[in-house]
Fold these 2 entries.
Entry 1:
Amino acid sequence: MEFSRIFAMTIDSGTGLVLEGGGMRGVFTCGVLDCFLDRGIGFPYAVGVSAGACNGLSFVSGQRGRSKLANIDMLERYRFIGLRFLWSQRSLLDLRTLFDTLPNRVLPFDYKAFFANPMRFEMVATDCRTGQARYLSERQDAARLVTLARASSSLPYLCPTAIVDGEPMLDGGIVDSIPVERAMTQGYACNVVVLTRQRGYRSRTRDVKVPPFVYARFPRLRAALSRRHACYNRQLELVERLEDEGRVLVVRPQRPPDIGRLERDVKKLSALYEEGYREAARVLG
């Protein structure tokens, strides 16, 4: 399939959607997905990491605008990022608001629509015991679905581990930030990849060995954390190579986002959301 013409065709059983994380930079993805929903574009399969996983949930349930409300409007109201949550929740994020108050009361998530959608959706988490990526999905249990989203989004060092089926999990971005290879191994040769960094970006953070007293019970997790930046850069190189070969279509910011991973400036976040929408519209033509 020629990707320069993908949206002139019917998206078929060989087309996947890959959603990078990136913390609050994920509002770019919110804009992209809302544009897709406005254009009536769907996929048979999607895989998301961290913020990408959370935003992907509202895409699958067809709730246009919900992710923007949750990430931007509700941030201004609830201020769910801050040091004050360290004492009560051992986290820089208000996990109770994010994974209970918002989806179950304030901005009700449409579980019925999500489960009725035949689209296959996976969320990536890191298994703390093995240090490997876990690709998780749920088609019936609402509580477990929320737990999977929380696991995929549990930032190392900043959030406690999430327990999934009795196993400790953390953010999937530790080991698979851009799961395009996962999509390909699942039989989706053609993929649309939504990134939250501009082309050419590489992490300049040097990997260092995580000391034994950090995550002392999980030596394989420490090993994964010790090489996470090199792993991320290899994935960025892979995506750019696949893009140059015409094997993936990438939607990404055109300039470096002026957004921190835990950004709280609502105006900046709103601007990045609008950029995501515009970039998706530009790609669609």
Note: The chain has a mean pLDDT of 90.
Entry 2:
Amino acid sequence: MKQKLDLNSWNRKEHFEFFSAMEEPFYGITQTIDCTNAYETAKELGISFFTYYLHKTMVAVNAIENFRYRIIDNEVYVYDQIDASATIMREDKTFGFSHIKFDEDLLQFSKNVDAEIARIQTTQGLFTRDFSEKNLIHFSALPWINFTSISHARGFSYPDSCPKISFGKLTDLNGQKTMPMSMHVHHGLIDGYHIGLFLEEFEKQMNV
């Protein structure tokens, strides 16, 4: 479900119009995340670390309203729930785009992840199902690379307002586990302040 935002009463109307007129309205940040507690918790629960931090990412996404904004036909809509579209690798080292339904319950979300990973293994190509709705986060994991920055392929003529979140290699230094997280967002919808709110909520979730 989604509702149209009243642009005329929105205090960010001018910001939205200004950045939406740009050829590249996306900007990005990279942050090092402390994963020590989260990694141990996932291990204790018997859940893959990928599933665990993806769930905490989506909890934080859904908690911050601006991350649920999407642009459709030059209007801004607020979705009730955002799901994850993660790149899932197959045995032949190609990948497909998934659609993982968010659930606040970690165990149910884990089942959703496992089912979607299994489904992707039986498909070919990128677009393995319908992606007509925009209530998604574009999500990718690069567990081989301890990156300090990242960019994304973009077709500027294609209307896109979905945030893009990427995680890199898990590094262990003297018992402290960290990994890089990159985030690219549409500046017409999300400012640095809102990214700060997201990171605060995400870090809290990773240390529950």
Note: The chain has a mean pLDDT of 96.
